[in-house]
Design goal:
Radius of gyration: 17 Å
Oligomer: single chain
Largest sheet: none
Distance between the termini: 20 Å
Helix content: over 70%
Strand content: under 5%
Number of strands: 0
Number of helices: 2
Length: about 80
């Protein structure tokens, strides 16, 4: 159970950090190229950014939970 909780927490943190990196990268491209890609860091004002953030978090939680479920627990006798 502790491994699942750790996977959920790590998935949330990883998804958030990667979203912020992708949003910053898209912001740089938007400024340099003059494009109008609707992803930015203003999550409260932009529904599309909030949806992408939630997708990133859910995807990474699923990836880490899948990894936990498919990796056998260690059997160390202390």
């Amino acid at each position: 159970m502790l491994r699942i909780a750790a996977a959920v927490i790590l998935g949330g943190i990883t998804g958030t950090i990667l979203f912020l990196l992708v949003a910053l990268g898209i912001g740089v491209v938007n400024d340099k190229m003059g494009m109008k890609i609707p992803i930015n860091l203003l999550i409260a004002e932009n529904v599309f950014s909030a949806i992408v953030l939630i997708l990133f978090i859910l995807i990474f939680i699923a990836v880490f939970c899948w990894q936990v479920w498919n990796t056998p627990s260690s059997d160390h006798n202390l």
